[in-house]
């Protein structure tokens, strides 16, 4: 597992412009919930998990799906996520946050 400067929760706390760790009716927790987006934060190597979670949180909240991958756009995980989102035209907004 890659070493990270900070845990995922630190990045969420630092950059979420909404409510953090919101518990949903099915007992899952969305990392960041804004008026418009249900956002999943994760490290770039966990890109596939992030896609599934973002779509689920969108379904559960009725908000648009968002992903913030912690790393850079040059990371393989970011490229894979972008390729899958683009190829399948998934309704997910993808962003990165530098470590």
């Amino acid at each position: 597992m890659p070493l990270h400067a900070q845990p995922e929760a630190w990045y969420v706390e630092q950059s979420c412009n909404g409510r953090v760790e919101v518990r949903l009716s099915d007992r899952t927790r969305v990392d960041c919930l804004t008026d418009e987006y249900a956002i999943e934060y994760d490290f770039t190597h966990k890109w596939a998990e992030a896609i599934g979670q973002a779509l689920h949180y969108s379904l559960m909240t009725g908000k648009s799906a968002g992903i913030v991958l912690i790393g850079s756009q040059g990371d393989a995980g970011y490229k894979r996520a972008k390729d899958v989102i683009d190829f399948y035209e998934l309704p997910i907004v993808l962003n990165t946050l530098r470590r």
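Residues 8-97 form one domain. The chain has one domain: 8-97.
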